[in-house]
Amino acid sequence: MRNNKSLFTNIDWTLVSIYLVMLFFGWLNIYAANFGEGTHDLLSMSTEPGKQLFWIGSSFIWILLILIIDGKFYTTFSYFMYAITILLLIGVLVVGKEIGGAKSWYAIGSFSMQPSEFAKIGTLLALSKYLSTLNINLDLMSTKIKALAIIMAPIFFIMLQPDAGSAIVFASLFLVLFREGISGVYLVLIGLAITLFLLTLTLQVQTATIIVSSLCLLFGILLKKNRKSLKPAFLSLIFAIGFIQSVGYLYNEVLRTHQKNRIDLILGKIDDVHGAGYNLHQSKIAIGSGGFSGKGFLEGTQTKFNFVPEQSTDFIFCTIGEEWGFLGSLFTIGLFLLLLFRLIHLAERQRSTFSRVFGYGVASILFCHFFINIGMTVGIVPVIGIPLPFFSYGGSSLWGFSILLFIFIKLDAYRMDILH
Amino acid sequence: MGTGKHSSRRVFFYFLFGVSTLLLLISLFRIQILDPSYKLSANSNVIKAVTVYPERGYIYDRNGALLVSNQRAYDLMVTPRQVDEIDTLDLCNLIGVDKAYFNKQFKRAKKYSNHRASIFLKEISKQTAAQLQERLYEFPGFYLQERTMREYPHKSAAHVLGYVSQVPDYVLEKSTHYKKNDNFGMTGVENSYEKELRGTKGVQYLIRDVYNRPKGSFQQGKYDSLAMNGQDIELSLDIELQQYAEELMKNKKGSIVALEPSTGEILSLVSSPYYDPNLLVGRSRSPNFNRMYKDENMPLFDRSLLAEYPPGSTFKLLNALVGLQEDVIYSGTKFSCDEGWRFSPKLKIGCHPHASPLNLTQSIAQSCNAYYCYTFRRIIEKYPNTEVGYNRWRDHILSFGLGNFLNNDLYTGRKGRVPDVDFYNHQYGKKRWKAPTVISLSIGQDALVVSPIQMANMCAAIANQGHYYTPHIVRKIDGKPLSDSTYTIPKYTSIDKKHFKTVIRGMERSYTSRYGTARGARIKDIEICGKTGTAENPHGEDHSIFIAFAPKDNPKIALAVYVENAGWGSTWAAPIAGLMIEKYLSNQISNPELENFILSGNLISKDDEKQ
């Protein structure tokens, strides 16, 4: 019955429309960020807007391929793709080109390819495949560990590059496990861990230890009649103190100076607009100077004159903020929120676990990119170099995100054909 | 494979995405709408207000010769706040300063303002600036500001023209027109015509990128204002005459002031020793200024306007005129002279040997002292008491522009001194002095002092037979003649015109008479009227003085020559005056030997020069 269907039957046009609007608006801003540098022909292949047009065009070819290929392909070959992913991640450590102190890129001729962008696809496919195994029980520790291992393997190799930003994105896949039934306790524990983490960094190790101990003591006094709960309370105190100490160790001994600076800037511990804080400061100036309705297309001075670093890749949102103002920010963020809500909505209507997990995975990855990227430009998240999906300049990321999104669109269009 | 099992957990995702989005929107609302400071930061990031300096007006002489023009120079400016980590040593080498100087300048700039640009190194040459400009992007916080520097093609008339420097603090405090480091005329015409010469500054708002490279004008120059160039000025100075005068005064201390009697225009104004005005331009100004400031011959001191000397025997002319006006003598009045005038055994004014008695013209030509002692006494004693008589005499003298500022367009000047009654009352006691007490006034000594320009003006008043125009240095501003009535309305002396003839004849006789004091300085075919003078100098040899005008009828030039420590007026000052007159009137020199003698004369001892 599939044979008489056209390629675009059952396609979710809402997602496709959001995708196209994002690509168009993103490209306009890449054009604006490069405008005014004395370039006459911004559409030539030697400029970023010109190259980005090529990336957009080639993404459409990928999309066409994805829509043509049978939906079964993704379930069938998911582990195979995962294996290729891991091999690519290992390979880049050996033959990769070192850019900015990290071996994250394959250089092929004049083009470069970032395997971690494609690793998201393979990893998500494998995770979806594993979680859609018949009779899987996430309550079992072994299941949890296996699922965790699928996510942790690429993180491990990416950390070796090292590329902390991409690694954090992979960690967002834990959210999918929560949807699939893992206990909420883990989510609470992660929340507590993040709180403790921030507490430790803001207040130093000793102070954090004292506060946590006092809280436990308070609980102990309150619970003194209930002797049973004393033991777990004591254990969690030991654990908390251990955690604080290791965070302290991590921060002081493992993190490099620039990473520490980025965290300290967000926590307000240092305020240095010329040194470590320069990028963030300039980023906020660019966005802030846009005001309510922006300076107008191609009228932004901060991004155009290179006050903002990486203005067409990681800091593309500065151009949006400066030239389109708060209205532009609202529009962009609105598009993302719409995209994310739509993804969750569609994921929930899937009959197959595979498709659902994949949908949630796409949503989690896009959310992670979106929140961290815009969050860092406005200074509520430390500067982490990850792109804004569909907006930032760059072939690997655009291909990666497009493939990710359209595999899900294909799975969604294919949902009626799946017998579950 | 259960779909519905945990499907309620989707709410968590909606919540997580919603709250996160809200968080971003709140942050954006805060920095884009609530906090206006980012807008200002953005502007200060990219918009730089650059002062456009107007070109300072040019200065020409009376014949259209260019005396002062402009040359391009650059100031290296620094905004300390914008200075990032730069290769200091590299910059030092580029601009040719050492590290210590660099640090000193940077500290100074920082002290002035961390946010506002100030001069780091002023007046860099075009070549250095060109090299620097190419690499300026490597040194954020630094930029080049174009400015103009003066240039003096004739290397002459330094005192008249004055010099331009960075505006001094006392001007900055009073005037809103100037900003620190602006140009300002410190002395000379540059100072007295500062308002006309300076022009109006303009402002250009430029957009600059993160490397401080200019990226065009802000909003198509909507807020820019144009610089208005300064006005050109034509001086009354004759630069050829000025340069000749300077040559004549080479290796001598003193002054020459030459005026056009019919207008009061200054033809030449020389103070010697003089210097090349180009020495006080640019970065060498400071060291040159300090060196000259310490020079014991005081080249920076403008003797023509500021030196005060006794007028000596030249003053006899005025006493003769006052005597005639007061009817105490007439042209035929004779006084005998027995090598001087004796009042008492203690009080005697000596005189050189000459025939006796002499009439008025002879007394001028031969400069008899006794004649004027008698005349002066008669003037004062004509009145019932000394004070009344003295004031009467003094008023006549003041009417020649002595004893007070000339109120002209020169940047400085001195009153000189014609002592008043109080002065002598204070010195001798009220009613304790009489004409003989102050008898030296008759021969231009005592407490009487005048400046060279006052002397020249006095000479012009005699040449004009009773009036003078306030001496002035500027003829035209921006092509338009001076309209100030100070310079166009004649000032009359209190002496009737008819009395001048006799005196002028006497001045002529000093050349033509066999015994005339200026006989040796005669010039063929030119009727010169002159008067020698010798000012007693308690510190050393007397000053040689001469005033003269020519031609006798319808005079074209009147001048005063002072040569310090040169002895008799007839030795140095008279020949110099003669050469000046000949040069100006006929543009040739009939007596090259005399010229040569003067040019090679060195009255500043060589030992002095070595020190």
Note down, in words, how this protein is organized.
Chain A is mainly alpha-helical. Chain A has 2 domains: 2-182 and 261-417, no CATH class; 191-254. Helices cover 67% and strands 3% of the residues of chain A. Chain A has helices at 13-34, 48-68, 72-76, 78-95, 115-131, 141-160, 164-171, 174-179, 184-222, 230-254, 257-266, 278-288, 316-348, 353-378, 395-413; strands at 97-99, 102-108, 111-113. A 3-stranded antiparallel β-sheet of chain A has the order 1-2-3, covered by helices on one side. In chain A, α1 runs antiparallel to α2 and α9 packs across α10. Chain A is globular, with a radius of gyration of 23 Å. Chain B is of the alpha+beta class. Chain B is built from 23 helices and 21 strands. In chain B, the strands form 6 sheets. In chain B, strands 2, 3, 4, 5, 10, 16 and 17 form a 7-stranded mixed β-sheet that branches. Chain B has a 5-stranded antiparallel β-sheet with strand order 12-11-21-20-19, sandwiched between helices. Chain B has a 3-stranded antiparallel β-sheet with strand order 1-8-9. In chain B, α10 (239-248) packs antiparallel against α21. Chain B is elongated. Residues 606-611 of chain B have low confidence and may be disordered. At the A-B interface, α8, α12, α13 and α14 of A face α1 and α2 of B.
Tags for this entry?
heterodimer; A: 420 residues; mainly alpha; 2 domains; 3% strand; B: 611 residues; alpha+beta; Penicillin-binding protein 2a (Domain 2); Beta-lactamase; seven-stranded mixed sheet; five-stranded antiparallel sheet; 21 strands; 36% helix; elongated; disordered C terminus
Large-scale geometry of chain B:
elongated
- Number-wise, the strands of chain A total 3
Q: Main β-sheet of chain A, in a few words?
A: 3 strands, antiparallel
**Overall average residue pLDDT of chain B:** 88
The CATH first-level class of the largest domain in chain B comes to: Alpha Beta
In whole angstroms, how far apart are the ends of chain A? 17 Å
Helix content of chain B: 25-40%
Strand content of chain A: under 5%
The number of distinct helices of chain B, counting runs of at least 4 residues, comes to 23
| Global structural class of chain B | alpha+beta
> For the largest interface in this structure, which chains are involved and how many residues does each contribute?
A-B, 55 and 40 residues
Contiguous uncertain segments of 5+ residues of chain B: 606-611
Structural class of chain A: mainly alpha
Judging by the overall fold, what is the CATH architecture of the largest domain in chain B? Answer: 3-Layer(aba) Sandwich
Along the chain, the helix and strand elements of chain A come as HHHHEEEHHHHHHHHHHH
